[in-house]
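EI: anyone free to look at a 224-residue chain?
SC: sure, send it
EI:
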Amino acid sequence: MDHLSFALTADGSKTLFNEKVGENYHSRHGALQESKHVFLDTGLRYFLEKSGLTKAGILEVGFGTGLNFLITADFCTANGIELEYTGIEAYPLNQVIIGDTGYDNYISNELWDSFSSQYQKALKHEVQICNLCSLKIEHKTMLDFNLMELFDVIYFDAFAAVHQPEMWDYQSLKHISKFLKPGGIFVTYAITGDLKRTMKSLGFAIEKAPGAAGKREMLRAVKI
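SC: here you go
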């Protein structure tokens, strides 16, 4: 994986730069703060407060370094939330890169030890990361993903449309949206006119939420 290199972001956390794609895995304004704001706070925590549930199923498009999973699992463990987490990743990172992220500094030691020791297994089948949290990583493209399972929240963390437009077109968004339950939440760091129109045409109520550092707004969409 010579095309990948670590970069330090503004909040002190690391991200990866993918030379082939020409983009970072996370915001250079802060990988950790973006993950917490966009996905945990604007996505899962909003869903839990809205629904009153203590259990959630999350589907992530673009599992990448695992940061979104780790901060989500850490929150759920601390707050007694049962979490079933599925990631989609066409190009999984190797164990060495996962170990060098430094994300063990932001979660419990127990969670990190379990995740890092079972990461490779999660690429093949579901694993129990802790008493409340399970994880499986589907090693395939988004359009090849197909499960009977429906989810409460979708974390859409694909590379930006300028670099991977095929991830953001109508066909792709229609495909992934069918795995979301009615009333479920779709969140992503981006917000464009095309994205809003597409999600609205797919039966979503569109919300403009405050963006993470470096972005004024982001998209949260609720499936009607």
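EI: DSSP finds six helices and eleven strands in the chain.
SC: 👍
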